[in-house]
Recover the amino acids of this structure.
């Protein structure tokens, strides 16, 4: 099983460019998440989708949009990239929504904004 | 504000020793607790989760939870150089608008030297 697959793995953008990060899971999970990880800041939740058809803001949603395309896929879009969005982005999924659900992570996308 | 605190380390132990990693959290509504291991440049990998007070053992790993004192710890017995990584503590809550979200500490860097 591939688990959670993220594309691309690396990307360099110029300020103001747009981009969509793709995430797909093959574990038949209902809930999916997007995090960013910055040095010294830990993982912070950007957006999440508790189930197909729903999305909600997390801790740091400004500058991002998401789409839950179907049960498998959850994409993250940067409409106008800014240097402050340079980070490592992780997608995660869990079987369902709830406090006792462990989340499983993809390999990440390393994004640099120049 | 929900806070999860970890000593950033680095924690350095010799091979074969017990490594003790600690995590405190601010919200008494916390219900579920997760430990992730993250190798440099890699994604977080779930090691253990614990929901009830007391100890939970899985191989060389033991998670300890004390809800009254609001801390959770991870013990690694017979530490190996391959255990060298950053360990992330994550806490989830079971009520209100934060239901299902994971809040991560900034991680403790562990080095196991031969």
């Amino acid at each position: 099983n591939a688990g959670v697959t993220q594309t691309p793995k690396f990307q360099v953008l110029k300020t103001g460019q747009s981009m969509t990060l793709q995430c797909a899971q093959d574990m038949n999970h209902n809930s999916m998440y997007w995090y960013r990880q910055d040095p010294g800041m830990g993982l912070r939740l950007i957006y999440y989708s508790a189930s197909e058809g729903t999305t909600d803001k997390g801790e740091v949603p400004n500058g991002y949009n998401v789409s839950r395309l179907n049960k498998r896929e959850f994409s993250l879009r940067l409409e106008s990239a800014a240097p402050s969005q340079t980070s490592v982005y992780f997608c995660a999924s869990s079987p369902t929504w709830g406090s006792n659900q462990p989340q499983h992570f993809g390999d990440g996308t390393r994004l640099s904004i120049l | 504000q929900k806070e999860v605190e970890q000593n950033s380390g680095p924690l350095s132990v010799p091979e074969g020793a017990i490594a003790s990693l600690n995590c405190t959290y601010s919200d008494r509504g916390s219900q579920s607790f997760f430990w992730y291991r993250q190798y440099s440049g890699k994604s977080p990998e779930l090691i253990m989760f614990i929901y009830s007070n007391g100890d939970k053992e899985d191989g060389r790993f033991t998670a300890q939870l004390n809800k009254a004192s609001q801390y959770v710890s991870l013990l690694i017995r017979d530490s190996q150089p391959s255990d060298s990584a950053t360990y992330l503590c994550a806490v989830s809550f079971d009520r209100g608008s934060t239901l299902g979200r994971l809040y991560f500490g900034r991680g403790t860097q562990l080095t196991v030297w031969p």
